[in-house]
Amino acid sequence: MEVLGIILSLFLLMFFAYRGFSVILFAPVFALLAAVSQGFSPMPAYTELFMAKAVTYVKAFFPVFMLGAVFGKVMEDTGLAKSISHKIIQSLGPSRAILAVVLAGNVLTYGGVSLFVVVFAVYPFAAALFKEGNIPKRLIPPSIALGAFTYTMDCLPGTPQIQNIIPTNFYGTTMYAAPFLGTLSAIVIFAAGLSFLNWRWKQAIAKGEGYGDHTLNEPVVAKDIELPNWVISCVPLVSVLVVNFIMTYMFAWNPDLLKPFESLKLPMMAPAVKNVIAIWALIIALVVGILAAVAIGFKNLPKGGGLQKALNAGAIGSLLAIMNTASEVGYGNVIAALPGFKDIATALLGIKIGGTPLVSEAVTVTTLAGITGSASGGMSIALDLMAKNWLAWANQIGLSPEVLHRIASMASGGMDTLPHNGAVITLLAVCGLTHKDSYGDIFCLTIIKTSMAFIAILIYAITGLV
User: Fold this and answer.
1) Separation of CA 195 from chain center
2) For residue 38, how many C-alpha atoms fall within 13 Å in the half-sphere facing its CB?
3) Which of 136, 171, 341, 420 has its CA 20 to 30 A from that of 214?
4) Is 191 exposed, middle or buried (0-12, 13-18, 19+ CB in 10 A)?
């Protein structure tokens, strides 16, 4: 009965998220429902369990969410993101339209631009190119998803997306963890995903299907559109990557930096400097990227407070993202405290396929990501609940924490893209399409991406390469 209460709570959370209700409101509701079903008083469960972990998550990751959102908004409002995507799409042309859209998403997300900004930056040019090439419009969302929601989000070492940052706080790793495994996985996903989309295009050609008659959110891209120079537009993206690498590997962080703050008896975010170097490095890199984007694109901002509006919009927009994820983490903390969770945890840790915690980790992370409809939310819950056990197990068998990091990150970007995922809903809305139009192809990419986490485990088992 105890386990049943947790399962019912999870089902209700997934159902309401799918129906479009905010998890900020309903995550605590269903967490308390599970707590009450097992004899816990609701108010202490809310203030001492749910809120305690939610605010801890905000404390740890809010700077990354905020600066990432501000950076993306500045890149969007200055036209720098559009300049880059326009150049890539224009250069490859209609005959390679799908590849062009994928690569445009790759460049922007790996450079630190948020997934949502990529959708708005790439879509207008993608639609124009697909229409010119008479390619079904329904293939635009999966093309953008492959370029922005998959391997550049969590596979490639050094990607500044939050899904690659979260594991550093639990495993003491860096954003460059397991570079061989991550890079190889990215290549396989890129090849498999692109082959699938091109195959779908050939199927459409055989059926005589073209772009189609669409009126909803059809963009009009002016032929004489004035955008910043694409080479200069890449400078902020490159600066984020370069500064992050320097601050991670070339800057000598003093391991005693936290000691003066420990004497103040403050609630510390991490037990050691190594656990927060990745976050500190990215914060500095994003600040540099924002300054570079403002300096380069300032003249392109609307007159009369354009910079102020961009900075404010980015900062305010980050609040929704961080609070969604924090609410999911708070939910997980309540569930973890319930007696029924012990049986679930035992079952998950009992997955000993291959003699390592990797399969257990991958199953747990991608399942919770699917339930919550959030890669960062599902992974945060999983790592908060189980990371210590997985790390202890890894230490016993000599498994590098870097592999734990990479598998967790990759698995988070697996089943998260179920129909209730916020990014999927936004992507389809921007493209003026429905789940019926395009979700089938997006789901096939989800299967490819989810499978790759387990294939990567097999590759590691065979080669031992990290």
Assistant:
1) 23
2) 24
3) 420
4) exposed
